[in-house]
Design brief:
Helix content is 47%, strand content 7%. By secondary structure, the chain is mainly α. The longest helix has 18 residues, at 75-92.
Length: 205
Amino acid sequence: MLVSGVVAGIAAGIAFGGEWRRLNSFTLQLWPLLVIGAGLRLVGELVPSSPLAVYFIGLICIAVVAARNWRLPGAALISVGTFSNVLVVLLNNGMPYDVVVATEINALPPNNGLYVPLGPDTIFPFLADIIPVAFVPVGFLHSVYSVGDFLIAFGGFLIPRRPDHAHRAHLRHVPRDRFGALDGSRGGDRHDPERAVLPVWGRDR
């Protein structure tokens, strides 16, 4: 769910009031590592016989990039969720999934080098793919996911949203009149503070 979870989270974040323009404002550090990780994940999807190392290294790359960019909204959750998946994959020589749950919703994972059935010897089974999602019988909305997957999706949800502290800092610089109201004569918008135009001194800070 890694890539689809982030994309779905971003889409949901925009749908619930996020700003797609924020996606153009990020300075992503270690981005070449992200490209490598995403590429390895793609190889794993296209070549089901790929060894577990391909999936594992891909996950590690993406988790490291998310951790390095932890100041970005949602990046810390994406990192924690990905490292959670990495841990359970490492300890169980693959991502365990609940066969009973997956069968009940008719969403068995692909037969590749990543997934292994959940069993009595599974380590940290609560981190495995045990949570059914069956909104519609198609794609990533119909599958079995892990706790880490949900953290990744929620991290994606936060990416296009403005942090509250940034929003408050923005409003502090909105021009106001002597009574504390938004001052339209100085470039502000009395009805919509988000559309207020900052004065020169506000832009330089």
